Amino acid sequence: MKILLRIIKKEFLQFIRDPKMFRIVLIAPVVQLVLLGYAANLEVKVIHTAVYNQSKGTTSRNLLRELKATGYFHLDYYVNNYKELQKLIDRGNVVLGLVFDKDFDSNIGASRKASIQAVFDASDGNTATISAGYLQAAIQKFNRKISLITLSKKGKEVRFPANIEPITRVWFNPELKTRIFMVPGIMSLLLMIITITLTSLAIVKEKEIGTFDQLIVTPIKPYQLILGKFIPFVAVGLIVIVIVLTAMAVVFNISVKGSLLFLFASSLIFVLSTLGLGLFISTVTKTQQQAMMIATFGVMMPMIYLSGFAFPIVNMPVSIQYITYLIPLRYFIEIIRGVILKGLGLADLWTQFVILIFFGILILFLSSLRFKKKID
Amino acid sequence: MNDLILQAEEIFKNYRAVEAVKGVSLNIKKGELFGLVGPDGAGKTTLIRIFCGLLNPTSGSAKLFNLETSANKRKIQKKIGYLSQKFSLYRDLTVDENIEFFADIHEVRNYKKRRDELLDFTRLKPFRDRLAENLSGGMQQKLALACSLIHNPEILLLDEPTTGVDPLSRRDFWKILFSLKKQGMTILITTPYLGEAERCNRVALMNKGKILVTDEPEKIKNSINKKALEITCSPAIKCAEALKNKHGVDAQIFGDRIDVLIEENSDFNQYLETIKKNNLTIKNFNINKLSLENVFIHLIKQQDLKLARTQ
Fold first, then answer.
1. Of A46, A103, A312, B37, which one has the greatest count of Cβ atoms within 10 A?
2. With bands split at pLDDT 50, 70 and 90, how would you rate the model's confidence at A356?
3. Is A155 helix (H, G, I), strand (E, B) or coil?
């Protein structure tokens, strides 16, 4: 016990002595949270548009005015041929090119079918899809308007047959802001990054400077060494959570709806697996650089992609969906989002909680075995 | 039972296909200052790590205090002080903190007095609040030594402690080793420097995973019954070749001079004649006793010949 305390004390001393590390761990999370919180945005607010209007009649101009009025479509360019339009799309100046053919207005006037061509830059598929949706909605609305006008011009009483109008209620995130969905996820990423990298680096650093051998040649037991390394970083991880929760409330006005106690309890359970992974990385690497590379590319990036942090798991191919079941971060993100956004607790999230416990113990156990084997 | 602290018998160690140690046997007595000498890659570090219990031998037995190292790691590690090749210190802790840390993990109670003794002994007391990374190389090495002594070990295993340290600090370090020895400490030290080996009680010369000879330095020097004819000449390489071709002697090149190993009672003039006949110039010559280096190079050459013959 005394040896354990001694190692923890040493680890803290070293941590505090390294002012850069100190700053990185305490300030970086807040900066990350703010940057990602603002930048990680999947909403489409502005659709830069170029118009090639060969018709130039009243209806086409009315439609354009209507589009402009939605606030999404910014009609930045009016061009006179396809070439210019293509150039603007190629350069990325616009996402959407709208082309009215010569007969557009005359067709409408004659109650014939009139069409417009909409060219999207789909190099960013997400933006293109959402923009297309906005355009369709806007044109549909406009269609109804002209039907009404033409019908009333003909003096007929206008009445649409049965009309279904959905009344939507958006729960948990009424403004549909990506931020509210992303920020709790970012918090779980930070906790993971800090615990995995700090643990693996702290152990590999000792290997690098040679103190590791020096430690093994003392009566220290492997479990004391492992715990001595873990406890300080768990403490750091929990401090980071407190910082991030505060920043979340202050900067983004997102407060925790559920129980803080449950949030911290699940964080503690989650770090069992990240510490285990950190320990594992330390057993397969010899230098801090190697450890950093493996932690980043071998462990953390795949975990992030497969966790549902940014890309919804339901949209993944089924085979990949099965793989996501093996990613502890997936369950932790579900818990964190549930607790923070929906106010859920253990009663609703117990499956995720139990799976996290299982993974934590399993990973930690296997890594410790490997670590011990390496020492003996 | 006996006063042997360390006994190694027929130790082999393979790293996959590479044989690092090929059948090493040696004994170290209590209170001895034992030098394990050899070039880089001879297998010295592997051997010392086996003694510490950091590695298990592929075959053979290594015993410390009559206990097999691989099976009794904890028991043995309480009684040994080990210093690995790099100065293994926490560079971001102070001198005092480093010593305290190692005292605590060795569960040394009341280490304060011992710590002050060691600081006096290594003359690090004025620097006790300095971070280890701000110490000079020589001081770091002394601090590492102090850390490995805090728990009063019975044997010190030092792996190339003086490599990369300036000559003055190196001398200082040896002074400390001598006074430790005076206090009864058993010391095993590895070094690539033959000059340092001469200061040990006994020396084992190691090359290519094998020990070529183990004895007191003086006895090793006398073991091959030869003397050294030191000739300063130019070009040294050509002179050595000429002598080798004509007389089949071992001519060792040291920069602008060669040491010719000749029989105790042979006439050296014939060798000088040979050089002159080849139109090479002799600047100076001397007859010396063999140095440890001469013997070592001689033995390595013989080992190489033997290996070449068996292949």
1. B37
2. very high
3. coil
Closest CA to A374 of A274, A295, A292, A281: A281
Would you tell me which residues 29-48 of chain B have a C-beta closer than 8 angstroms to some C-beta of chain A? none
Residues A328 and A232 occupy one common structural domain: yes
> Is A106 in the same domain as A250?
no
Give me the number of domains chain A comprises. Answer: 2
The answer for B 123-142 residues in CB contact with A (under 8 A) is 131
Residue pLDDT, tens place only, A74-89: 988 998 988 988 898 8
Rounded to 5 degrees, what are φ and ψ at B64?
A: -120, 135
pLDDT for residue A157 is more than 70 = no
Residue B217, preceding peptide bond in cis (omega within 30° of 0): no
8 Å CB contact of A6 and B97: no
A9 and A66: one domain?
A: no
B154 CB-near residues (< 8 Å, 6+ apart): B5, B65, B79, B80, B185, B186
Contact list, A213 vs chain B (CB under 8 Å): 49, 52, 54, 82, 84, 88
The overall average pLDDT reported for chain A is 85
In terms of Cα–Cα distance, which of B209, B155, B191 is closest to B293?
B191
**Which residues neighbour B136 within 8 Å (Cβ) at sequence distance 6 or greater?**
B169
In the structure encoding, which two tokens stand for residue A196, read together?
Answer: 């995995």
CB contact under 8 A, A217 and B87: no
Number of domains in chain B: 2
Q: Which of residues 9-28 of A touch B (CB under 8 A)?
A: 10, 13-14, 17-18
C-beta atoms of B88 and A210 within 8 A: yes
Is A1 near chain B, with CB under 8 Å?
A: no
Averages of pLDDT over runs of 10 residues in chain B (311 residues) are 76 83 85 87 86 83 82 82 82 87 84 84 85 84 87 88 82 87 89 85 87 84 79 77 76 79 76 74 77 83 82 71
Same domain for B106 and B147: yes
- pLDDT for A330 equals 92
What's the rounded Cα separation, in Å, for the pair A289 and B56? 28
CATH at A110: 3.40.1710.10
Q: Are B25 and B10 in contact (CB under 8 A)?
A: yes
Query: Does residue B54 belong to the interface with chain A, where contact is any CB pair within 8 Å?
Result: yes
Q: What is the pLDDT of residue A170?
A: 65
Instruction: Tell me the residue range of the domain where A90 lies.
Output: 47-153
Phi/psi of residue A5, nearest 5 degrees: -60, -40
pLDDT at residue A173 in the model:
66
Domain that holds residue B25: 4-220
> What distance in Å separates residue A235's CA from the closest CA in chain B?
21
Structure confidence by residue, pLDDT tens digits, A234-268: 888 888 888 888 888 888 888 888 888 999 999 99
A215 and A364 in contact (C-beta within 8 Å)?
A: no
Partner-chain residue, chosen from A10, A213, A217, that has the shortest CB–CB distance to B101: A10
Q: What is the pLDDT of residue B1?
A: 45
